[in-house]
User: Which sequence fits this backbone?
């Protein structure tokens, strides 16, 4: 069993992007990070993105509207960022609080600045294999992680557990593409799938993105499979000072011995998501200047 270290792969990508940014002429790429309210997880995620941006040489513009912001006010804020020529990329940290319409906000971001890859146009470009768009960061990070771990999806049966707009659907589209490293045969499973273990046991590559702690158990794995765990779940743990710890969607201790390669949680897919956000921001800068 080989552990796929997202931390190590992401560090390599960050170093590559730092070199790339240093060669750019004119102003540095600029990423606007919009965080509504004070959700502790969102605060942590935005800080990580800000830190990585600073390491690479990307300018961060942190915008912190209160939880009381209305839908109209938030849309106006996004419109202003869309119109700002100094801003290359816009990320609205999810989840949004209260009654704010998250999907409407994602669609409000200009497709040319949608470095999160959630806009309808960018998702459509993935389906059409149009590289001028932006792939959402977690799926893009998974594909990069697989490629740098010598996992070629060509002819492989890829099973995705989860059908979210953020991970499940776009990773399925990326794995299907007629490109080097892709060309997989993809099955998407979800809450209405019957006899889920029978399907996951067929997977050469299993991608778990369902948001349920340790949901994937050893009886769901084909020996020798590659397992990518996208889940980030906080569970009680009295041995920790915080009283909790992070686990993935995969029962790691039980599943890992059966696999050929597997990602840990934390330190697996998460760092790749941030690295690909920076890569998208630099791409947006090149398109916008």
Assistant:
């Amino acid at each position: 069993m080989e552990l796929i270290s997202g931390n190590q792969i992401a560090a390599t990508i960050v170093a590559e992007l730092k070199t790339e940014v240093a060669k750019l002429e004119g102003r540095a790429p600029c990423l606007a990070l919009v965080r509504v309210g004070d959700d502790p997880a969102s605060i942590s995620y935005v800080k990580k993105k800000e830190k990585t941006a600073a390491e690479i040489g990307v300018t961060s513009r942190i915008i912190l509207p209160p939880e009381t912001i209305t839908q109209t006010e938030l849309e106006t804020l996004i419109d202003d960022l869309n119109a700002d020529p100094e801003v290359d990329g816009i990320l609205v940290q999810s989840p949004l609080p209260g009654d704010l319409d998250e999907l409407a906000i994602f669609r409000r971001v200009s497709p040319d600045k949608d470095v999160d890859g959630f806009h309808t146009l960018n998702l459509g470009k993935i389906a059409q294999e149009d590289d001028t768009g932006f792939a959402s960061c977690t799926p893009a990070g998974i594909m990069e992680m697989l490629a740098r771990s010598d996992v070629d999806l060509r002819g492989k049966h890829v099973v995705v557990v989860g059908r979210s707009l953020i991970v499940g659907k776009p990773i399925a589209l990326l794995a299907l593409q007629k490109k080097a490293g892709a060309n997989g045969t993809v099955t998407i499973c979800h809450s209405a799938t019957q006899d889920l273990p029978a399907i996951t046991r067929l997977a050469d590559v299993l991608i778990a993105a369902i948001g349920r702690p340790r949901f994937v158990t050893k009886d769901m794995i084909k020996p020798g499979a590659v397992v990518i765990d996208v889940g980030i779940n906080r569970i009680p743990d009295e041995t920790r000072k915080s009283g909790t710890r992070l686990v993935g969607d995969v029962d790691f201790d039980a599943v890992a011995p059966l696999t050929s390669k597997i990602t840990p949680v934390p330190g697996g897919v998460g760092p790749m998501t941030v690295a690909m956000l920076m890569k998208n921001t630099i791409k947006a800068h090149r398109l916008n200047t």
